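Run folding on both entries below.
>entry_1
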Amino acid sequence: MNQPCNSMEPRVMDDDMLKLAVGDQGPQEEAGQLAKQEGILFKDVLSLQLDFRNILRIDNLWQFENLRKLQLDNNIIEKIEGLENLAHLVWLDLSFNNIETIEGLDTLVNLEDLSLFNNRISKIDSLDALV
């Protein structure tokens, strides 16, 4: 089985990674080309897919204030952090990571679907605010 993550260095989410992901996942036809030329505003992005990127830390997502779906599965994330500004998030996938504590989710009051399977969870914290 091909597993490209093992050969890559651990990565932190930076502007370049996010711009590349947004560009790759945006519309590919003429409208998409226009958006790439003019620059896509992160606040306009509703869905972001960052799976299989060897991400070690969640970071630089504060600009995605209207994000509704975030896919961070199959990385090497150890801690749930950097999500406090994503109040509109409805769907979050953090499965297949190295997370030990469920934390940092208390501001995600619209969260409906949270996937955390296949992690190293031993402690659950700060879920009281969530319905």
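>entry_2
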Amino acid sequence: HPMPAVPLGRIGVAAVTAGPGVTNAVTAVKNAQMAESPLLLLGGAAATLQKGRGALQDIPQVPLFRTLCKAALSVRAVRDIVPTLRRAIATAQEGTPGPVFVELPIDVLYPFHVVQKELGGSKTPRGLRGKLVQW
């Protein structure tokens, strides 16, 4: 009986930055898939409101990992971080072990004023977008 790559009940965890950090992890994730090793890959992502609008390092990360991982998830709200991570860890370990990808957009991880500064804006946008950002 061969020894598992990761001791039973344990999971490998890696955290990478958005864009190039995520794409540079593809080979490692494929190796984890082939070795049936439970792995949780946490990837940064552009702010939710900037998705698909040409934001820095905004690429379709979740679809990229759907074919390599048992699950590829994106957290949309702070209250969803813990349940999503719990689900991801369970998924990585159950059945045939393997990698799971969880995308964490910057606006879910940091307070609004930090994200606003990072995006280079000091005043709140007007209109519907401004109301969404303030909300």
